[in-house]
Design a protein that fits this description.
Layout lengths: L1 E11 L19 E10 L2 E7 L9 E5 L3 E5 L1 E3 L11 H8 L4 H6 L4 H9 L3 H17 L2 E7 L6 H17 L3 E9 L10 H18 L5 E6 L6 H13 L3 E6 L7 H7 L4 E4 L5 H7 L5 E4 L1 H7 L6 H6 L5 E2 L13 H12 L3 H8 L1 H5 L18 E6 L5 H4 L6 E6 L2 E2 L1
Parallel strand pairs: 1-4, 1-5, 6-7, 7-8, 8-9, 9-10, 10-11, 11-12, 12-13
Antiparallel strand pairs: 1-2, 2-3, 5-14, 14-15, 15-16
The structure holds N-(iminomethyl)-L-glutamic acid and zinc ion (ZN).
Zinc ion (ZN) binds next to loops.
Subcellular location: Cytoplasm
Catalytic activity: 4-imidazolone-5-propanoate + H2O = N-formimidoyl-L-glutamate
Keywords: Cytoplasm, Histidine metabolism, Hydrolase, Iron, Metal-binding, Zinc
Length: 411
């Protein structure tokens, strides 16, 4: 089945196959075609061009995109979308003056979510997660990474990863799974963290690898959670099972997590709210993508990732939501793109590049996703009639999405 978009006001993010990621000043360029057409066949982009040169097509279904912009769907490379219930009460506790750390120290936070998840059946967890996945797809997300890490026992971590597997099977969106058993130390292991690390390495990882339940491995490298040494241990064990690192670092403190990530050739290092010059230096010359999560900063009232320092140092940057019940109960990539412009001083071009091309890199999907390239998946956002692409981040809070296409099909 062929699908033809005609009269597209602006076709954004046109790239050749060689574009894998964008860094430094390259992020300011957003290649586009005005008054364009685009042809889709078998779920893939076949060709595109200017309306004045449109060939005669037969037996095609046509979409009139007059006044509308067509751009690649958002790629969300960092989420915890599979979780049970919510943490609304902690939100109120924070309004009333407690900090995220104080809440975690009194048994809330990640351990609170873990307790809820352990008590929730796999079926119910699937139903709650599928609802969230459908919600983010409608908001333009066309590829998504999902982490475990609210299980913290072998059974509950496997339950989470099986739910992710079922989502992969039942939805057209590309999904990558990450094993984040090292998200927090369970209460029972408070005095013996090493025994928990052994459980992750000796019991959970082999099972996950055997059932092929994850592509990536993650750890929350942060004061009060896991140290740089723990990070070495988990990433080295992950390597034995072909689990590529994508790690939580520098959210509250800079303790050397970026350097370990780079040493293990991590695909991405995520959060980065607190960065010192050595952290930026460590990323130079590496293949590791820095990933910022501005809606987490908004919700927790913590600093925003210093995007200007990162990009102006010649580095790439990707954007993601961090969708989770504690620090970011929102999976809205449109808001993330707006926040990147408003709070991190990224230009609209930089923010769109960070949420498409660079985000695809951060999920290992550069060959199939993230740009309008012949042969790539036909994953698009078709906007409402809007004056320009800059209007998307400018009019924050309104998504301006007419429709979303995944593999050439309107969802
Ligand atoms: N920082 C670590 N993990 C999550 C939040 C976890 C939670 O509060 O439930 C994050 O990326 O923000
Ligand atoms: Zn996270």
């Amino acid at each position: 089945m062929k699908l033809l978009f005609k009269n597209i006001k602006q076709l954004l993010q046109i790239r050749d196959n060689a574009t894998i990621s964008l860094k430094g000043s390259e992020m300011k360029e957003l290649p586009k075609l005005d008054d364009a057409w685009l042809l889709v066949e078998d779920g893939k982009i076949v060709d595109f061009g200017k309306m004045e040169e449109i060939p005669a097509f037969e037996e095609v279904e046509t979409v009139d995109a007059s006044g509308k912009i067509l751009l690649p769907g958002w790629i969300d490379s960092h989420t915890h979308l599979v979780y049970a219930g919510n943490r609304e009460q902690e939100f109120v506790d924070r309004i009333n003056g407690l900090t995220y750390e104080e809440i975690a120290n009194k048994g809330g936070g990640i351990l609170n979510s873990a307790k809820k998840l352990q008590e929730t059946s796999e079926e119910e967890l699937y139903v709650q997660s599928a609802r969230r996945l459908e919600e983010v797809m409608k908001m333009g997300t066309t590829a998504i990474e999902i982490k475990s890490g609210y299980g913290l026992t072998t059974d509950a971590e496997l339950k989470m990863l099986r739910v992710i597997k079922r989502l992969k099977e039942n939805y057209p969106i590309a999904i990558k799974a990450t094993f984040l058993g090292a998200h927090a130390v369970p209460k029972e292991y408070k005095e013996n963290k090493d025994a928990y690390l052994d459980l992750l390495v000796d019991e959970m990882m082999p099972k996950i690898a055997e059932e092929q339940l994850a592509e990536y491995v993650d750890i929350f490298c942060e004061k009060g959670y896991f140290t740089v040494e723990d990070t070495h241990k988990i990433l080295a064990a992950g390597k034995k099972h072909n689990l590529i690192p994508k790690i939580h670092v520098n959210q509250f403190n800079s303790i050397g997590g970026i350097q370990v990530g780079v040493e293990y050739d991590a695909l991405s290092v995520d959060h980065l709210e607190v960065m010192n010059p050595e952290d930026i230096e460590a990323l130079k010359g590496s293949r590791t993508m820095p990933v910022a999560l501005p809606s987490c900063s908004l919700f927790l009232g913590i600093p925003y990732t210093p995007a200007r320092d990162i990009i102006d140092a010649g580095l790439p940057l990707a954007l993601a939501t961090d969708y989770n019940p504690g620090s970011t109960p929102s999976g809205n990539m449109n808001l993330v793109v707006s926040l990147a412009c408003m709070k991190m001083k990224m230009n609209p071009e930089e923010a769109i590049n960070a949420a498409t091309v660079n985000a695809a890199y951060a999920m290992g999907l550069s060959e199939t996703h993230g740009s309008v390239t012949k042969g790539k998946q036909a994953n698009f956002i078709l906007t409402e009639k809007i004056p320009s692409y800059g209007f998307l981040p400018y009019s924050f809070g309104a998504n301006h999405i007419d429709s979303v296409y995944i593999n050439g099909k309107k969802i």
